[in-house]
Design goal:
Shape: globular
Structural class: alpha/beta
Distance between the termini: 20 Å
CATH topology of the largest domain: TIM Barrel
Strand order of the largest sheet: 4-14-13-12-11-10-6-5
CATH class of the largest domain: Alpha Beta
Oligomer: single chain
CATH architecture of the largest domain: Alpha-Beta Barrel
Strand content: 15-25%
CATH superfamily of the largest domain: Queuine tRNA-ribosyltransferase-like
Number of domains: 2
RNA sequence: GCGGCUAUGGUGAAAAGGUUAUCACAGGGGUUUGUGGUACCUCUGUUACGGGUUCGAUUCCCGUUAGCCGCC
């Protein structure tokens, strides 16, 4: 169930209810692809204030596998996380692992990157795996085409995604959960419109904007996200899949997107790039920032591995109250990266996730 | 003291009488968008010292110095 509590222009402030609890929207989902947010525990994620995690059907299908996951009683129990989980269907791996898979109308055959074993993923199997995982929000299996594709390829992928959407919708429900469709169509307005309308006709609990941030110019990403929202029902949650940088999220919220996930805070953390505030996040004029997406004035990315931090003892981020900023100097963080201590990944991930979760809190506050 | 071997970036190695001496690591800077779990791109930096042969030597020769090995 999705309830909008307040709206400012197109931006929405709402509540999304799932079997494992409710989330205040707009929200951000940290990514636990294989059942763990890299370097962090479930308890860490609670401490950070995450309300929902994202996990991945394809990766969990490889390990531990469908039957083991059933036997283990689902992912909530397995990883001891009692709040909601959203699962990606494996559609993104059609794109990201495109060198190792073959697409047919029935589904996609992957050569496992782990042991070369063949896995034939279909819409039905993806839904079965997501049921085994026990996720609260399940994504349709879709066909993501690269951002540099021709219109013919986009159209083919979009039409197939629509047919697969219907097949996912038709899988009988055995429990309470939300099921989302995914808009494709690349960077063509007519394809995006047909995709969105087709999905709405099938009928889902929420709608995702997919197939963006996959190699196309950033302006297109902004433009087609805004364009796509025009064809989505206002009373259902909208989910921008896979993005993005802080200023992107600010923009997408302004055009009415409610849900986000992105690997950037955690991956950048592992590579030593930390997001820091230029001002108190609760004083940011997000309406202004959304109109100025390329100005990027409210935060700075700091490379804590850089030489300039060798002797820096002042806090990394004066506006951050995370465990890392409260207890450790940039100089120490740099040392941890230089010596490849595992603690580097953990402390940096704690900070970057705190940044993203705080960004969402500040955005919600601005919409009250 | 005598004999032998070696001497190439910060480190470890490679190559060659002739454009700009190669590679890895380290170091500097950057990239990352529904995560193929330590990635990718890029830059900086070297022929121990002195003399000789040669049109040209970092390469061949002699000496100096240093290190290693053996002998007395």
């Amino acid at each position: 169930m999705f309830t909008i509590k307040n709206q400012k222009n197109n931006a929405r402030r709402g509540v999304l209810t799932t079997p494992h609890g409710e989330m205040q929207t707009p929200f951000f989902m940290p990514i636990a692809t294989k059942g763990a947010v890299k370097s962090l525990s479930s308890r860490d994620m609670e401490t950070l204030g995450a309300d929902i995690l994202l996990s991945n059907t394809y990766h969990l299908m490889l390990k531990p596998g469908l039957e083991p996951m059933k036997q283990l009683g689902g992912l909530h129990t397995f990883m001891n996380w009692q709040k909601p989980i959203l699962t990606d269907s494996g559609g993104y791996q059609v794109f990201s692992l495109s060198k190792m898979n073959k697409i047919t109308e029935d589904g996609v055959t992957f050569n496992s990157h782990l042991d070369g074993a063949r896995i034939h993923l279909t819409p039905e199997l993806s839904m079965e795996m997501q049921a085994a995982i026990g996720s609260d929000i399940r994504m349709q299996f879709d066909h993501v085409a690269a951002g540099t594709s021709t219109k013919e390829v986009y159209e083919d992928a979009m039409e197939r995604s629509l047919r697969w959407a219907k097949r996912c919708k038709d899988v009988p429900r055995t429990d309470e959960h939300l099921r989302f469709g995914i808009v494709q169509g690349g960077t063509y307005e007519d394809l995006r419109e047909r995709s969105a309308k087709g999905l709405v006709e099938i009928g889902f609990d929420g709608y995702a904007i997919g197939g963006l941030s996959v190699g196309e110019p950033k302006e297109d990403c902004y433009r087609f996200t805004e364009f796509t929202t025009r064809f989505l029902p206002t009373d259902k949650p909208r989910y921008f899949m896979g993005g993005g940088m802080p200023e992107e999220i600010v923009y997408y919220v302004s055009v009415g997107v409610d849900m986000f996930d992105c690997v950037l805070p955690t991956r950048n953390a592992r590579h030593g790039t930390l997001f820091t505030w230029n001002q108190d996040p609760f004083t940011i004029d997000f309406e202004k920032e959304a109109k100025n997406v390329f100005a990027q004035s409210f935060y700075t990315q700091k490379r804590v591995t850089n030489e300039q931090f060798q002797f820096t003892t002042e806090p990394l981020d004066a506006f951050c109250s995370c465990e890392t900023c409260q207890n450790y100097s940039p100089a120490y963080l740099r040392h941890l990266f230089a010596t490849q201590e595992l603690l580097a990944y953990r402390l940096a991930s704690i900070h970057n996730l705190t940044f993203y979760l705080t960004l969402m809190r500040a955005l919600r506050a601005s919409l009250e």
